[in-house]
């Protein structure tokens, strides 16, 4: 590590002001930034801690409308009784992230803003048709994630919350890396009042994406059997030491079927 100035922000406005100090970076759980600093892949001059800003924490459920503060931890998402009732799939997803240490420190806002191509939350946000709320605007999840570790966030823009309407049915299934528990392939399926949305993480060359062929099949019949003849192209999928593009294409189909089965109970 190296010398770095630490600031604890008292409010979102305070955090925005502090971000103008040197090469400052936001930190909440620090699950990505701190390891990057330790390996010298990141070297901010200042850290702006937003983890204790009360306005950024908590989960609200009003009917079908769900709002989750950006500084809410994975553990809090996984164990909130109101969320478990409104959208158990998202609570279950949060329980699969990392290990207990990660779940008690990492936050939903940090994960979304970082947009790791194998992270779980981006798939949930896209499949749920969520809105990403910042201190400046509201952004549809379909437009928020732009590529590997890239979002549409601008300088001085901070994720403050995510909002969505709870679906009629939903589930998330992933094939985990046995060491990191990141998704080699993860599929989130959500059936709303008028449509079906399916988002895939861990597989795409450009990060999270919607599986339109699977959506079309499930719109006709929300049943695992409806995916029997669906072919997943490997053309835009990644290959690495964990899995080839062809194997990831196979896993997308398998995880989608499992997700639909889980959603149907």
UniProtKB/TrEMBL annotation:
What's this protein's name? Xanthine dehydrogenase family protein subunit M
Per UniProt, residues of the FAD-binding PCMH-type domain are: 1-169
* Pfam families with a match to the protein in the record: CO_deh_flav_C, FAD_binding_5
Top-rank taxon of the source lineage equals: Bacteria
Keyword field: FAD, Flavoprotein, Oxidoreductase
The record's listing under SMART domains reads: CO_deh_flav_C (SM01092)
Xref: InterPro entries? CO_DH_flav_C, CO_DH_flav_C_dom_sf, Diverse_Substr_Oxidored, FAD-bd_PCMH, FAD-bd_PCMH-like_sf, FAD-bd_PCMH_sub1, FAD-bd_PCMH_sub2, Mopterin_DH_FAD-bd
The answer to whether the entry has keyword Transmembrane helix is no
SUPFAM superfamilies, per this entry?
CO dehydrogenase flavoprotein C-terminal domain-like, FAD-binding/transporter-associated domain-like
Coiled-coil region(s): none
């Amino acid at each position: 590590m190296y010398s770095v100035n630490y600031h604890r922000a008292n409010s979102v406005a305070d955090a925005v002001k502090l971000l103008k100090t040197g090469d400052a970076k936001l930190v909440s759980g620090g699950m990505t930034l701190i390891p990057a600093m330790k390996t010298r892949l990141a070297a901010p001059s200042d850290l702006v801690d937003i983890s204790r800003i009360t306005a950024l924490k908590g989960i609200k459920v009003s009917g079908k409308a769900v709002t989750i503060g950006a500084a809410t931890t994975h553990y809090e998402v996984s164990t909130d009784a109101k969320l478990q009732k409104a959208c158990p799939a998202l609570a279950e997803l949060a329980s699969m992230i990392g290990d207990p240490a990660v779940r008690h420190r990492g936050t939903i806002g940090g994960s979304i803003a970082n947009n790791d191509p194998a992270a779980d939350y981006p798939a949930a946000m896209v499949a749920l048709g969520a809105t990403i709320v910042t201190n400046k605007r509201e952004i549809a999840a379909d437009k928020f994630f732009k590529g590997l570790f890239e979002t549409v966030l601008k300088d001085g823009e901070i994720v403050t919350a995510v909002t969505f309407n709870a679906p009629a049915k939903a589930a998330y299934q992933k094939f985990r890396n046995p060491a990191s528990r990141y998704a080699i392939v993860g599929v989130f399926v959500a059936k709303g009042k008028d449509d079906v949305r399916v988002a895939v993480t861990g597989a795409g060359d450009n990060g999270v994406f919607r599986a339109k062929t699977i959506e079309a099949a499930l719109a006709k019949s929300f049943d695992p059997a409806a995916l029997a003849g669906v072919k997943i192209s490997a053309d835009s999928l990644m290959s690495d030491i964990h899995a080839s593009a062809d194997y990831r294409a196979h896993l997308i189909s398998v995880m989608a079927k499992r997700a639909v089965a889980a959603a149907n109970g």
